[in-house]
UniProtKB/TrEMBL annotation:
<dbReference type="Pfam" id="PF06516">
    <property type="entry name" value="NUP"/>
</dbReference>
<dbReference type="InterPro" id="IPR009486">
    <property type="entry name" value="Pur_nuclsid_perm"/>
</dbReference>
<keyword id="KW-0732">Signal</keyword>
<feature type="signal peptide">
    <location>
        <begin position="1"/>
        <end position="25"/>
    </location>
</feature>
<dbReference type="GO" id="GO:0055085">
    <property type="term" value="P:transmembrane transport"/>
</dbReference>
<protein>
    <submittedName>
        <fullName>Purine nucleoside permease</fullName>
    </submittedName>
</protein>
Length: 355
């Protein structure tokens, strides 16, 4: 009798312990994750990078560990808003998604950061919601000094025979059977992007006297001469840091080519394409919902110099534009985060859209 009683007690205890362990292991489901590419120094209290304004203004005071990552990359507030800084790149996106402590299937993502801005479309300090992220890495390249005379530049699609044409034979890649699989343009949820733009388009943006003085170098008819604004437009990601009118022409053409003339090149940076490749893989595996991904980039410097300024002098000269871009990125994105959190009962199961 005593033995049966003891076994019964032990079974009950095991059951309770098991239930407690299951409850403790219930994954956290962030409502929104704001993704930044890098940060200067500390996350708070010093000169800002892409992350700090979000951390401070969204009160992301709690640091959350991510399994397998040795440095702090994740913060949160009590409203379900998280901030993720990719200190070591897209591998940390993968680590977060594969950590069983998190359930990201209902999470909205805002990939943020600063970029070179196309002066033919917008000015430094402007912010753009993307409809596509276009990959500028996978291409063929010939030295521009040795290209055929009727070519605009020596960059063109793999499998094509000249610039500004799509590949005719998809099997040029070996395992590809449909030319659509060769796309260099990763589509985002355009209805969601339009919804986000509608919430943020009238947000008061900051300006800077130093940036305003630099705008005066552009002709008055140029968009680069105007104050910062919120707009919609595409992000081109390329690992190489390019600059100048010749490459700006290529970027405009490349975005137009791969979006079938529906996209407009506005922002360029070095990581958006890598991040979206990772997110597309995670979506295919069922860890994230691709319909909930947004990309919000802000311009810190023009992607080509104003008239009369040498290329070598303007290359990488971001000056006061960086801080303005950090500031306006958060200003434009904040209303979208606030709306998602405020009406989470609506947006948890129904992704918002706009015509």
């Amino acid at each position: 009798m005593k033995t049966r009683f003891l076994l019964s007690c032990l079974a009950s205890i095991a059951c309770v312990v098991g239930l407690g362990a299951s409850a403790a292991a219930a994954p956290v489901a962030p409502r929104v994750i704001i993704v930044a590419g890098w940060e200067n120094g500390a996350d708070t209290g010093d000169a800002p990078g892409e992350y700090q304004n979000w951390v401070e203004r969204a009160h992301l005071t709690r640091q959350i560990p991510v399994r397998g990552v040795k440095e702090p990359i994740l913060r949160a507030n009590d409203s379900g808003v998280y901030g993720l800084v990719l200190r070591s790149g897209a591998a940390e996106l993968m680590a977060l998604a594969l950590d069983p402590a998190f359930d990201l299937r209902k999470t909205y993502w805002i990939f943020t950061g600063i970029s070179g801005v196309n002066p033919n479309v917008a000015s430094v300090g402007s912010v753009a919601w993307a409809r596509w992220v276009v990959d500028g890495d996978a291409l063929r390249e010939l030295d521009d000094r040795s290209i055929p005379k009727d070519w605009p530049y020596g960059l063109y699609a793999i499998g094509a025979d000249r610039p500004n044409t799509l590949p005719k034979d998809p099997n040029h890649y070996g395992s590809v059977t449909d030319v659509a699989q060769l796309t260099r343009a990763y589509p985002l949820n355009q209805g969601l992007a339009r919804w986000a733009y509608a919430l943020s388009k009238d947000v008061p943006l900051a300006d800077d006297p130093g940036v305003a003085r630099r705008r005066a170098a552009w002709p008055g008819s140029s968009p680069a001469s105007k104050p910062p604004a919120v707009l919609m437009g595409e992000t081109l990601g390329a690992l190489r840091y390019w600059h100048g009118k010749a490459r700006n022409d290529w970027a405009e053409d490349w975005v137009r080519l791969w979006t079938r003339a529906r996209g407009v090149f506005v922002m360029t940076n070095e990581e958006s394409q890598t991040n979206q490749k990772t997110m597309r893989l995670l979506a295919r595996w069922g860890y994230v919902d691709p319909a909930r991904i947004m990309v919000l980039r802000s311009g810190s410097n023009p992607s080509m110099p104003p008239p009369g300024v040498p290329l070598t002098r303007s290359m990488g000269d971001e000056g006061p534009g960086q801080n303005l871009a950090f500031d306006n990125n958060e200003r434009a994105g904040a209303p979208v985060v606030a709306e998602l959190v405020r009406h989470w009962d609506r947006y948890r199961d129904h992704v918002p859209t706009a015509p």
